[in-house]
Specification:
By secondary structure, the protein is of the alpha/beta class. It folds into 2 domains: 2-279, FAD/NAD(P)-binding domain (3-Layer(bba) Sandwich), CATH 3.50.50.60; 288-341, no CATH class. It has helices at 11-19, 85-92, 193-196, 242-257, 264-288, 291-303, 305-311, 318-325, 331-337; strands at 2-7, 25-29, 43-44, 58-67, 70-82, 98-100, 104-109, 114-118, 122-130, 148-158, 166-169, 173-178, 183-189, 204-214, 220-221, 224-226. The strands form 2 sheets. Strands 1, 2, 6, 7, 8, 9, 15 and 16 form an 8-stranded mixed β-sheet that branches. It is globular and about 60 Å long. It binds flavin-adenine dinucleotide. Flavin-adenine dinucleotide is lined by residues 7-13, 28-31, 39-44, 103-104, 131-134, 137, 152, 154, 187, 208-210, 212, 228-230, 234, 239-243, 245.
């Protein structure tokens, strides 16, 4: 009988397991190696380094915002960092006991324990923890809510771009993230990412992609809880999930050590649930924007770029929403497309 049975040795599962490693745990991973395949652009803000070692491939001092043929820079020193995602995951897994090539199949909730079946056998545990990513199989034991997924594709390409700036294209949301002066990660989130990804001339080093869950979910039920992408703890506008996932794993780890894990769902929601709710609203508005709306939005951020450079927070998208709401010139646009008025 285990204290905790953890499904998924991604960054979130590994971070959480490090925190509770004094308990009797089993951590399973369906792949044969940590950190592979990489399905990530690896762009994070400074705050994640409150939890993990500050190691990165490249430092970012701002973004070029593009719309149609026009673009302008938003500059802030050290606003983001580009990770070597494979190494990031491997560092988090250091010294953990992980059962590789073991896949969670299903679970049964008994009176005083949970029965868990994998491709290797049957186990019993007091708690079951779903850190099994976007297409979590543990999720259905906690919530029946239907998940919204964003689709994404990314190529790593030999392509020259200013080394310490990223480029963001507004619709469909796409990015150029330099690893260094010669290699960039170029990706897109859209309904048809294969069609919408524009890869420039240059040797293609690798291709990846995947689903990004967005939404606000219940994350604890009957001694089963979800963390990271399994819990949909991602930024609904851009799909970034590393910071919220690690932060939630930290909260869950602390509560487990204090024997208060039953508070997990309400605690993480108290700390950053509103960011996800506001992000969902912003995503609905974004999806309803037509070309004219998008042009107005682009011109607004271009005109207000000083304010945005000073006060926007990479990990708190509500900061941008606040600037929009505080400017009467954006009200007609927001009123026209806000989900609140449908
Ligand atoms: C193209 C793309 C670009 C992205 N770019 C960024 C970015 O720039 N910045 C950012 O912050 N986030 C980004 N994200 C999101 C980020 O990658 C995720 O939020 C992050 O990986 C979530 O970590 P996790 O540990 O919760 O899940 P995962 O990293 O998905 O790990 C889950 C683990 O569980 C294992 N697993 C799944 N099912 C089972 C099972 N049944 N049995 C056993 N094991 C199982 C998987 O093999 C995997 O190892 C991006 C995502 C995509 C798709």
């Amino acid at each position: 009988m285990y204290d905790l049975f953890i499904v998924g040795a991604g960054p979130v599962g590994c971070y959480f397991t490090q925190k509770i490693s004094e308990f009797k745990y089993k951590l399973i991973e369906e792949h044969s190696e940590i950190g592979k395949p990489v399905q990530c652009a690896g762009l994070v803000g400074e705050k994640i380094f409150r939890y993990v070692k500050k190691e990165y491939l490249n430092k970012i001092d701002g973004a070029y915002i593009h719309y149609r043929k026009d673009y302008f820079p938003l500059r802030r020193k050290n606003v983001a960092y580009v990770l070597d995602r494979e190494k990031f995951d491997k560092d988090l897994a250091t010294d953990l006991e992980i059962s590789f090539k073991e896949r969670f199949i299903d679970a049964r909730i008994k009176k005083d324990r949970i029965e868990i079946r994998t491709n290797r056998g049957l186990y019993y545990s007091k708690y079951l923890v779903g850190c099994d990513g976007a297409c979590s199989m543990v999720r259905k034991y906690v919530t029946e809510k239907k998940i919204k997924y964003l689709k994404s594709i990314q190529y790593t390409v030999e392509f020259k771009h200013e080394e310490n700036m990223v480029s963001f294209f507004l619709k469909p949301f796409s990015w150029i993230i330099p690893e260094n002066r010669k290699i960039c990660r170029i990706g897109v989130i859209s309904n048809d990412p294969l069609r919408d990804l524009h890869v420039p001339e240059g040797r293609i080093i690798s291709r990846t992609g995947g689903l990004i869950p967005v939404g606000f979910l219940k994350t604890f039920r009957d001694n089963i809880f979800l963390i990271g992408d399994a819990a949909s703890q991602t930024k609904p506008l851009t799909g970034g999930g590393l910071y919220y996932g690690i932060k939630a794993a930290d909260i869950a780890g602390d509560l487990f050590l204090e024997d208060k894990i039953y508070k997990y769902d309400s605690e993480w929601k108290k700390l950053f649930g509103n960011q996800i709710k506001i992000g969902m609203m912003a995503r609905k508005i974004y999806e309803r924007m037509n070309e004219t709306d998008m042009e107005k939005f682009y011109n607004f951020i271009k005109k207000n770029r000083k304010k945005i450079e000073e006060s926007c927070d990479f990990d708190k998208h509500s900061s941008l929403f606040k600037i929009l709401l505080s400017s009467p010139e954006t009200w007609p646009l927001i009123l026209k497309i806000s989900p609140l008025f449908y």
